[in-house]
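Slide 14.
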Amino acid sequence: MKAKHFGFRRLTAGVLTLATAQMLATPAQAGLKIFDADDMKLELGLRLQSRLDLERVAGTVSSKEWLHDFVIRRTRLKVTGEAREADFNFEWKIDRTDGYTASPSASVENAYVQYPLGAGVKIRAGLYDQPFSRDRLTSDSKQLAVDRGAVSNVPDALGLADNAVGFDFRGKLPGGHAEYTLGMFDNRFIGSNLQGTPMFVGRLDLNLGATKDIFRDAHFGKDSWYSFAVNGGYQGSIENAAGQRDGSNAIGGIDGMVDVPMGSTRLIGRGEINVIKVVAPAGGNPIDTTALMLGAGISLFNQRFQPIVRFDEVRLDVAAGGGVKDITYLGANFYRNEHLLKFQGDIRLESGTHRAVDGARLQAQLDF
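Slide 15: predicted structure.
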């Protein structure tokens, strides 16, 4: 296909200009320390993701076969620190949501306080990601492809919120080779229904190799990571306006990640499968859905260039429309300063569309 269908030269100018500026910045580390004392620490940070989206959706917005949009996909202003023995985190996000006519929206995310209780146990309270799904717990700034996939989006679509208000207890065994989290949350994705009980979510991680920064899709250096987990969640007594209260949401999953050096290169493989069951307040046939993700990448040229592939599959039962949807992403990441400064690109191939390529994305990221 000719480049004129994409308006490639004109549309990538903004991405490449911003990417060049970011490449020249080369920050040494994430975060700007504002205050650092024995009992008080304060650090500021910023994440910026500029993206060019190319989408093959004929006739949806216009008669063009390819739609294109340059957006500042995410802007995150971050505050982290310590006060006495407590840790705190706060993010103010200004996101451009998916869609060619969408406007940026501002809101708070990952705003919580965490306090040690002793014996390696901590309590966390606030608005943050529930302890479910490696893909959800991996920051959007450290994903293998340009953005998250089906294993994150499907639970949201079926009413199981990821970023929610609540609290949990979390701890780890000495050495950090086993970590656990169990909490209760306010599910904001139940629509007009009422909830009589909180959403209970728990997770157990086993880290057989390195134990630092397990939620990222590329590590650097010579350490090895072997991380596996099981997690689940349940919320019952969901009630509709008519007073019927047999509704429930249940979700369970397993995931794993292996990231190891191979000479001067690194090889990462990761996978996740989540099974979701949703029962309406009036009862009846439940909606059963399975979301699967497999991904792999190899870091070349002194761990700066990483070709990647990711495969997503969603299986719906008859009550949810039925069918199987497969999505494959092929792309590459260029790391100028690890995840702090990188350039990403991928193309999307979907089953059942009878098209060679269904979409493409280019993204430059600055995180400090």
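Speaker note: Helices lie at 8-25, 134-137, 150-157.
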